[in-house]
Amino acid sequence: MKKSILSVLIAAVLLFVAACGNGSGSIFKDGIEEFISNTYPLYDTIASTENSDQYARVYRAENQDIASVADSLQGHEEPTEMSEENEGKQIFIYDQYFVTLTQSEDNASNTMIEVAEEEFVRNNYSPGFFEGYLLASLLGNIFGNNWSTQRNQTCNLNPERCYGGYNSSGSYVGKTSTPTIRGASTNRGGGTGSGK
């Protein structure tokens, strides 16, 4: 009797360990947001216009182009969706996170890594940010079929409540006046889109 209980317990533990080792939900592996925050220095944060507790976080990968950062992210965790790199920008979708890689405007050898939770993207991003990168039908599946239409209406009425990504110009109200840099120094002046 004791042997059969012990055998069942061992089998259950082995099954649990095997299940945890598969896929991105492994308890032995950081999620993509933790991986990025532990690998790259935080450069700036962008506040949500809908919820003051939500931010997009921008990290800087020094002396790494978009392709090498993309390889690093995919080596840690495969995204559920990703765009092609186009005009210095590439977008990855992970469980609950959107990760955008853009070439730094200050130094072309650096890559900016923007990490935004799905809810931040839903409530703040402009649909135009994704044009040419992700299909509208994919975004409709994530945010609801009318998301693009409703966000475009908001953007037309209140452009300052529509975020176009870190390197965009415009007057998005969540932009900071100066980058908040952890573990690095910069000469970059102004916040997102300042002086453009």
UniProtKB/TrEMBL annotation:
It comes from Jeotgalibacillus campisalis. Pfam families: DUF4247. Residues 174-187 have a biased composition (Polar residues). InterPro entries: DUF4247. Keywords: Signal. Residues 174-196 are annotated as: Disordered. Residues 1-21 form the signal peptide. This is DUF4247 domain-containing protein. PROSITE patterns: PROKAR_LIPOPROTEIN.
